[in-house]
Design brief:
globular, about 45% helix, four-stranded parallel β-sheet, 12 helices, six-stranded parallel β-sheet, alpha/beta
């Protein structure tokens, strides 16, 4: 047994969708979440900048004595997987578990990918898919406006701002005839109802946050590192002013957030 918390980080608040799945799968675990809201989005940044941010985010979580780290960020998982591989605790990103789920789900061998510009540019999901099955046809589309759309709460099925934007970004994957679509950023599942309505029920949507949470749960169980307590708690940290956090967090978590959120500066020590 290991009662240390699980650490989760993202460029903003999208990683809370992974936290939601973690709390359902592992209700006895404590979770420390860091959303780098002061520097969101990562997807438009340079490779060197993303890697620097990743190192700082991981250091922040390690300072809380976490036993496992999830990079609930498609951009980090695509651009800096080697940093995750060399941490003093086990760490995973979203690419590998998501690609595996998509490869298992597709029936016609045509998979679409929605991600940030950096994620699509890295071709990380495509490489992971082809490592599993080189015959899979991939259509990848960068969706840079999805993150601010979600964090603004414009996610409802009939939202007049979201619908035309989703429709525009889905044009290429629709034309390609994909039967499976990777939501390659943990913000994107919040737009799933609109995306599903546009593509139809015949297209399987793969939630990167859920698949990564499942892998984390399986790893901890397999290593006998689950917590031994009645109920787990969650601590939330952001790098910008925390006002309004509870409202946005409720969208991702599906529940009211009563825990206090604290502002921290990655790379800076307290005191």
């Amino acid at each position: 047994m290991d009662n240390r918390p699980i650490g989760v980080f993202d460029s903003g608040l999208g990683g809370l969708s992974a936290v939601r799945h973690l709390r359902q799968l592992l209700p006895h675990e404590n979770i420390v979440y860091f959303g780098d809201t002061g520097r969101v989005p990562y997807g438009t940044r340079s490779r060197d900048t993303i890697r620097h941010y990743t190192e700082e985010d991981c250091a922040l979580l390690l300072a809380h004595d976490v036993k496992f780290i999830i990079a609930a960020c498609g951009t980090v998982s695509s651009v800096a997987p080697d940093i995750l591989d060399h941490l003093p605790v086990p760490a995973i990103g979203v690419v590998t578990p998501t690609a595996k789920a998509a490869a298992n789900a597709t029936k016609n061998g045509k998979v679409g990918i929605l991600g940030t510009a950096a994620t699509v540019r890295s071709a990380s999901f495509e490489k992971a898919l082809h490592a599993i099955d080189p015959t899979i046809q991939v259509t990848a589309t960068p969706c840079p406006l999805f993150v601010p759309l979600v964090e603004s709460g414009w996610i409802h099925e009939d939202d007049p701002v979201a619908i035309p934007m989703v429709r525009r970004y889905l044009a290429a994957v629709k034309e390609a005839g994909v039967d499976t679509l990777i939501l390659g950023c943990t913000h994107f599942p919040l737009l799933a109802p609109i995306i599903q309505k546009e593509l139809g029920n015949g297209v399987a949507l793969i939630d990167s946050g859920r698949e990564t949470a499942v892998l984390c749960a399986n790893r901890l169980k397999g290593q006998d590192c689950l917590a031994d307590r009645a109920d787990g708690t969650a601590k939330f940290f952001v790098s910008d002013q925390p006002e309004g956090f509870s409202q946005v967090a409720e969208i991702f978590l599906g529940e009211t957030v009563t825990d206090a959120v604290e502002m921290v500066r990655p790379g800076h020590k307290k005191g």
